[in-house]
Design a protein that fits this description.
The protein has 248 residues and is mainly alpha-helical. Helices cover 77% and strands 0% of the residues. Helix 2 packs parallel to helix 5 and helix 9 crosses helix 11. Pfam families: ABC2_membrane (PF01061).
Length: 248
């Protein structure tokens, strides 16, 4: 099942390239045109790039949703369910392929970030821990995407989810510090799961984080683990339950 998903990359290279290029364009736009990193003491680029890595992982649920809804509408998943195969192989194959794609996206974004001046400063072990937290966030959002795809049922409804994903993504500390926002908004932003991951990876990379001294900011690495685990605990069983009921 994983090979099947990866084979689509060779058959649809334009789709893969666009998926990898879109976050790169966002990074370049906020680095050179819009001006991310507002309210940061230090290099704004070193603040912005880790946040964009977290945003890329969260926005990956859109591609997951689109792929799953396409398979649902073409009857592919129904055919798989009729074959003598492990029922969970469809979901495992989907998740494995999406995680491999996320690794590729991280590699591309890291290379572009390095090209625009971003560096990490705390050694290889901390950098690998940061990558682990980013992939944990992606794994959690993957199951959100699989569940929502089976609820939506049609690729056209993915656009409706995108309308919600974008505000949630921007309601974080990816582009600006909570200290630069109104007090109530900054408090909401700090408790966004994406903010926890962005703050945690900044700490691990040794980049400026715009620390506010709040509990959420001081315990960002803990929250960067707890938030994804909580999301997985909710949406993984929901996705499995919804998948089991597809043919009923």
């Amino acid at each position: 099942m994983t090979r099947r998903e990866l084979a689509h990359w060779a058959r649809q290279p334009v789709e893969v390239v666009v998926g990898l290029a879109f976050p790169v364009m966002l990074l370049l736009m906020f680095t050179y045109l819009v001006g991310g990193g507002r309210g940061v003491d230090g290099d704004p680029t070193e603040f912005l790039v880790p946040g964009m890595l977290a945003l890329t992982m969260a926005f990956g649920l859109e591609s997951t949703m689109f792929a799953v809804t396409q398979d649902l509408n073409k009857g592919v998943i129904d055919r798989f369910r009729a074959l003598p195969m492990v029922p969970g192989a469809v979901l495992v194959g989907r998740s494995a392929a999406d995680m491999l794609q996320s690794v590729a996206a991280l590699a591309v974004m890291t290379g572009v970030g390095h090209a625009v001046g971003w560096r990490w400063h705390n050694g290889a072990a901390s950098a690998l821990a940061a990558v682990g937290l980013l992939l944990l966030l992606r794994f959690a959002m993957l199951w959100v995407g699989i569940h929502l795809a089976m609820v939506a049922g049609r690729p056209e409804l993915v656009a409706a989810v995108q309308i919600l994903v974008w505000p949630i993504g921007f309601l974080s500390n990816v582009f600006a510090t909570p200290a630069s926002m109104p007090g109530w908004l900054g408090a909401v932003v700090e408790w966004n799961p994406m903010s926890a991951t962005a703050t945690a990876v900044r700490e691990l990379f040794g980049n400026p984080g715009g620390a506010t001294g709040s509990w959420a900011a001081e315990h960002a690495q803990l929250l960067a683990v707890l938030w994804p685990l909580a999301i997985i605990a909710v949406f993984f069983p929901l996705a499995v339950w919804r998948f089991a009921r597809l043919s009923r």
